[in-house]
Structures are given as structure tokens and as C-alpha cells.
Amino acid sequence: MKGKKWLLSIVVVVCCIALLGLSPAMGAKSKFDPSKMGDMSDLDLSNPVIPTGDTIKIAIVASFSGPAAAVGDIYFASVQSVAHDYNKRGGILVDGKKKLVQVIKANHESKVPIAKKVSERMVLQEKVDVLWGTNGSHLMKVINQVADKYKTIAVSAAAVSDELYDAQNFSRYSFMTSISTSQVGRGMAYYYGQVRKKETKFYILCQDYLFGHSIAGGFKAGLKEYYPDAELVGEDYHKLFLTDFAPYLTKVKAAGAEVVYTGDWIPDAANLLVQARQMGLDLPFANLFINNPPFLQQVGIEGTDGLVHIGQIGSDGKAFKTEGQIKYYKAWNDQYPKWKKPFDTTTYEHGTGTIGAYRMQTYWLLDVIERAGSTDPEKIIKVWENDTWEDVNGTVYKMRGIDHKTERDLFIELYVPPEQQKESMNIEPYYWFKDCSNTGPSYKLPADKVTPVMDPKLKDIRKGS
Predict the structure, then answer these.
(1) Fewer CB within 10 Å: N-end or C-end of the chain?
(2) Is residue 456 part of a domain?
(3) Nearest to residue 79, comparing CAs of 96, 95, 97, 56?
């Protein structure tokens, strides 16, 4: 009898958890399903098939020229691969009609006035359904303003500053599918203070604009919360697209730092790491964007060993735990050898990491449109607010209704030499890259430890919405 009561209690608890949605996996309203993927055997990013006419239009507002042009290429590859998949499935049924997905490049040249001009052209002339961006939170701010003015959906898949969604800047038409700077900072602090518990002296070196200061602020707040014994021995900010990091790296050396924390993205991330190693500074960099293979390979195995990367997509332990994950991976990787410039570099070999994060966010966007059954912004907003969605690795994303920020688990990835990468890359060839260090051991940072901050003033502003 006691056994029956015990079993009944377990059943009741499980049912309650399911009903209350306490388990993110059980609470997900939808998910990415590899079995539904279209035939990707003709995916060729260097010769993409882009439909025209009556389509679902996504404008990638990003830098497709200038010093950060490579970033625009990464975005295009990510979004176009997802569009290709949906198009091979026959498109999406919206407003009573099946439509293919069209991806449009909108070059903002990393300049604020042009970002505004090109975003307005995309909405008013190209009649796009979604503005997808971007490299630079100051530029995403402009995109969001245009989206709000013309009631067009915007997706912040790459800009991560929390300020974009505070009471002053919030737009109900814009959704932050990326991680935020507060999550990055809290996540790194949690790892060093609660998991690793070793290094105590940190130096912040970030880009001198909204994002750089925001990601630094997130880390400082995280240290107070999770690692109060840590010491910040230095803090500096440099201009975008800097070519000479020597003055800053000299200060890092003199400060006695044990770890350098940075949010730098390419080309700054590449120049920072390369010059640091050239100067004999072999400290680990705790980073978000020092993960682009070509410059890691330039630095080599020894110079990249010990890098600590925080990612918004990943896995604790083995990267491939299901046949679906392998299918998804090979749908990209099998096609990579045939691609031509600029998609023939090792940046695009695996389709994982940062590219994987952009791909999953785009899958989420199209899944929301599919469930909304419409490109009507109001219908999309209704579905996406408080939505939960599961990515290819089983990580659940929750879109907070009040401020449109995403809650999710994050992942710490430790970069190790090729022979140790099999701890992550558990299918042939059992390493990610043979000429640089890359992901080996990895750790999940639970969503409740890395929740994005929320501006309390939004509660009053959004009351009743």
C-alpha cells in the first residue's frame, strides 16, 4: 500500500510540473524538428537560390562593405540557409497562401545615418516583413526605431545590449532573440566564481560604444553577485576597428591580470588576440566573439589553448547526442566543400557556434510566423510574446512578454588542442579544427542563473498590453 501511495505521489508531482510548465522542455510550445528539414543537398551559399515576387521578405540590415563586411557575410549565410530549408519544404502558409522566404541584403556600412536610410527603404520600397540585425547596438537602435515607426517586425539576433529594450528604447515590434550583455556578464562571472573558483584578477578591455560599455557593465554586476572576492585590476575601452592594441595590452601586462574579459567582435577580436600573442601575453581571454576559425588558426594551437568562450547555443559535454542533431549538422557540413568565396573559409565549415546561434534564432522567427499563419505584425507579436521554443540541442528559449528579451541556458566552452576536442566533437573526425584549439569541455549555465535584466519602469509602461 505504501508503494502504491508513493507511486501516486510521484505521478501527481510529475503532472503538476507538466501543467505548471516548470520544466522548460515540457513547456515548449514548439521546437526545431530536424526530421522536417527539406532536401539541403543543393545548398550553395556562394550561388544562392533566392525567390522573388510575393514572398516573405527578411532584410538583413548589416555591414556588407567596409572593415566589418565579413560580419554581413556570416549573417547572410546563417539566414539564407534557413530560408533555403523552408523553401525546399514548399514555403510557409501565411494569410491563406503558401509563400517562399526571400532574403535581402541591406548594407548599413556600419554607419548610423545609412542604417536609418536603408532600413526605411527596406520597409517602404521593398515592403519587407522583417528587419534582421545587426553588428552594433547603436545601429540596432536605429533599426528598432524604424520598425516602431512603420510597425514592422524587427529581430535583434546579433546586437546584445540590454539598453535596446529598456523603458526608453523598447518597441513592441522588436524582439531580442540573442542573448543580452547582462546574461553574458553574469554567465562569465558565474563560471569563474561558482564553477572554476581559481583566477581572481580580471581586466576588462572592450570597444568604446554602447555595446562595449554594456557588456562590461554586465560582467561587473555579475562579479558582485557571483564572485565578490574577485578583483578588477583594470578597465579600458578602445575605438571600433582599432589596428594597434599595444598600448592597451601593455597596461594589461602591468596590471597583473589573470584573465582578460572582452566583448570585441571581428575585426577587433582578431587583431586583439593576434597582437596579444605576438607581445607574449598568454593570458586566457574570456570572450563572446573570439571564436572565428581563420584568425584562431592564424594564432595556432598553443596561442588559442585556454580561451574561454561563452555561447548562446551549445551542449554540456558531447555536441551530438541524437541522430537529428547529426542530420542537421551534415545538412550544412556536407555542402561546405563546394562553396566559393567568401564562404570557402573555415568560418563556414561547421555551421555551429555563432553561425549556429543565428540559424536557430531565424528558425524560431519562421516557426513563429508559421504558427501565426500570417506576416501581420500584430499576429506575430501575439504568438511570440511569452512563447517557448526548443532548439536543435534541446535548449528552450522563452521570449519574455514584458520586454521581449529571451531567457535560456548558456554554455561555457573551454578551448583545447585537437586531441582533446573529442570531448565535444564526438563524431568523426573527433576534432573541430586540427590547427587551432577549439571547444572541448563545456558547461551549461542554467537559465535561472543568467536571466537578462529587466527595466522595472517597463512594468508601468506596458501595463495592460
Answers:
(1) N
(2) no
(3) 56
Give the pLDDT score at 2. Answer: 39
154 neighbors 175 (Cβ within 8 angstroms): yes
pTM, rounded to two decimals: 0.91
Residues 224 and 101 in one domain: no
User: Do 241 and 191 share a structural domain?
Assistant: yes
Same domain flag for 130 and 145: yes
- Boundary-marking domain end, from 353, 378, 406: 406
Which tens digit of pLDDT belongs to each residue from 372-416? 999 999 999 999 999 999 999 999 999 999 999 999 999 999 999
- Residue 453 counted as domain residue: no
Give the CATH number of the domain where residue 62 resides: 3.40.50.2300
Distance CA 270, CA 253 (A): 19
CA 167, CA 371: separation in Å to the nearest integer?
Answer: 29
Tell me, yes or no, whether 68 and 46 share the same domain: yes
Largest CA-CA distance found in the chain, in angstroms, rounded: 75
Domain around 205 = 182-311+410-445
Phi, psi for residue 410 in degrees, rounded to 5:
-115, 175
Do 125 and 251 share a domain, yes or no?
no
Count of Cβ atoms closer than 10 Å to residue 284 Cβ: 17
Is residue 343 within 8 Å of residue 356, measured between CB atoms? no
Q: Each residue of 179-207: pLDDT tens digit?
A: 999 999 999 999 999 999 999 999 999 99
Residues in the chain predicted with pLDDT less than 50, given as ranges, are 1-26
String of DSSP letters for 252-279: HHHHT-SEEEE---TTHHHHHHHHHHHT
454 lies in some domain? no
Residue 280 has a CB neighbour count (10 Å cut-off) of: 8
Which grid cell is 93?
A: 502558409
Instruction: Tell me, yes or no, whether 45 lies in a domain.
Output: yes
DSSP state of 330: H
Hey, is 92 helix, strand or coil? strand
Same domain, 270 and 346: no
Q: Cell numbers 520544466 correspond to what residue? A: 23
Q: Based on the domain organization, do 436 and 338 belong to the same domain?
A: no
Of 145, 144, 157, 141, the residue nearest 103 (C-alpha) = 157
- The long-range contacts involving 18-21, CB below 8 angstroms and separated by at least 24 positions, are 21/388
- Report yes or no: 68 and 428 within 8 Å, Cβ to Cβ: no
Give whole-number Cα distances, 309 to 58, 94, 161, 351, 442, in Å.
Answer: 30, 39, 18, 17, 9
Which 8-state DSSP code applies to residue 421?
A: G
Q: Do 20 and 76 sit in the same domain of this protein?
A: no
